[in-house]
Amino acid sequence: MMIKVGIVGGSGYGAIELIRLLQTHPHVTIAHIYSHSKVDEPLKLTFPHLQHIMQHFEALTVDNNDCDVIFLCDTSTRK
């Protein structure tokens, strides 16, 4: 059984490390990579070393509910 994963904050450093780890896992498929600042941009433009990943960044909406697991890699700011 494949586990469908979504990653929120997909354009950050934490997310890229998570993508690198998850793409080698035999039971995981990365279903969605969310980024509010790079919507519809190909992942390979932000991370040229990931030319083999053909996904685009997506906007996070409540309709994107087909993931089994969602990782939150968004930055946090304190004001």
From TrEMBL:
Ranges of residues in domain Semialdehyde dehydrogenase NAD-binding: 4-73
GO biological processes: L-arginine biosynthetic process
Regions that span the bilayer: none
Keyword Oxidoreductase: yes
Amino-acid biosynthesis as UniProt keyword: yes
Enzyme class name: oxidoreductase
Keyword entries, A-Z: Amino-acid biosynthesis, Arginine biosynthesis, Oxidoreductase
EC number: 1.2.1.38
GO molecular function: N-acetyl-gamma-glutamyl-phosphate reductase activity; NAD binding
UniProt xrefs under InterPro entries: AGPR, NAD(P)-bd_dom_sf, Semialdehyde_DH_NAD-bd
Listed name of the protein: N-acetyl-gamma-glutamyl-phosphate reductase
Annotated gene: argC_1
